[in-house]
């Protein structure tokens, strides 16, 4: 590698499962981030003439990816917007994709350099929007949500077991002063949870920040329709891979793939099959692929990653 390119999680596994089968295939990198996956695919499969469309809703990170991938400028294209919009109004200048990759994790840039409050390593405003041109911020949610709704958000989006205690303290404290920074929120969460919870292997505010980020960007609510749109666009014989980073995302991906893998989608108690269905995909990763111990030791945040891959076998999902 000739550049200092960020190494994404499960890189070798992703390169192998989504390798091109022939010449001049098209790959869609749906969360291009800093360009780590795309760089490695373009470099490894140079001789096959692989081309990539990189998607991200954030203009800033598109600029970073363009710089990273500048040596491949004749083989890479960029789309700034949501992946769902790209697939539902698929550009006519592109052939149908042979490979689609979703890396659902938030990029290193967003956590460490964007200044939008995705993490608590620096004191930043609680924005958390991937698309800063519209939408509510995390600070808005903290300021406006009723206590019960805030607690439900923390539990449903991140499985935070102390969601009610955290929400109660936030609501109490916001009556005294607005809560708008990462350090203020992290400190409140630490106060709300038991001492034993503060001694875990992750920061006690990790799930709270995750839950707010998911809510701000609609990550879970967007995912089912996004997967369906992507699979509809994929060329038969093509492969779709998804890297998720927490159990809620992974459950959505797993259930969608299992549904598409069924010959019959009728209710289980139906006496006869009426759907006349045939499976749309073959599942290539039965239990999902997780990082090896050496990768986790080198990059601890990778411990929660899981890769699932399917191969499209029918085109019924492409019909309107």
Automatic annotation (TrEMBL):
Q: EC number(s) of the enzyme?
A: 2.1.1.199
Reactions catalysed according to its record: cytidine(1402) in 16S rRNA + S-adenosyl-L-methionine = N(4)-methylcytidine(1402) in 16S rRNA + S-adenosyl-L-homocysteine + H(+)
As for family, the record states: Belongs to the methyltransferase superfamily. RsmH family.
NCBIfam families per the UniProt record, alphabetical: 16S rRNA (cytosine(1402)-N(4))-methyltransferase RsmH (TIGR00006)
- The residues listed in the UniProt record as binding S-adenosyl-L-methionine, with positions renumbered to this chain, are 35-37, 56, 87, 103, 110
EC class, as a word, reads: transferase
Q: GO terms for biological process?
A: rRNA base methylation
Provide one Gene Ontology cellular component: cytoplasm
Function recorded in the entry: Specifically methylates the N4 position of cytidine in position 1402 (C1402) of 16S rRNA.
Per UniProt, subcellular location reads as: Cytoplasm
Q: Which PANTHER family match?
A: 12S RRNA N4-METHYLCYTIDINE METHYLTRANSFERASE, S-ADENOSYL-METHYLTRANSFERASE MRAW
Q: What is this protein called?
A: Ribosomal RNA small subunit methyltransferase H
Q: Which organism is it from?
A: uncultured bacterium contig00015
Q: Which keywords fit this entry according to its UniProt record? A: Cytoplasm, Methyltransferase, rRNA processing, S-adenosyl-L-methionine, Transferase
| HAMAP family reported in the protein's UniProt record | 16SrRNA_methyltr_H
Q: Name one GO molecular function term.
A: rRNA (cytosine-N4-)-methyltransferase activity
Q: Per its UniProt record, what SUPFAM superfamilies does this chain match?
A: Putative methyltransferase TM0872, insert domain (SSF81799), S-adenosyl-L-methionine-dependent methyltransferases (SSF53335)
Q: Predominant location of this chain? A: cytoplasm
Note whether Transferase occurs among the keywords: yes
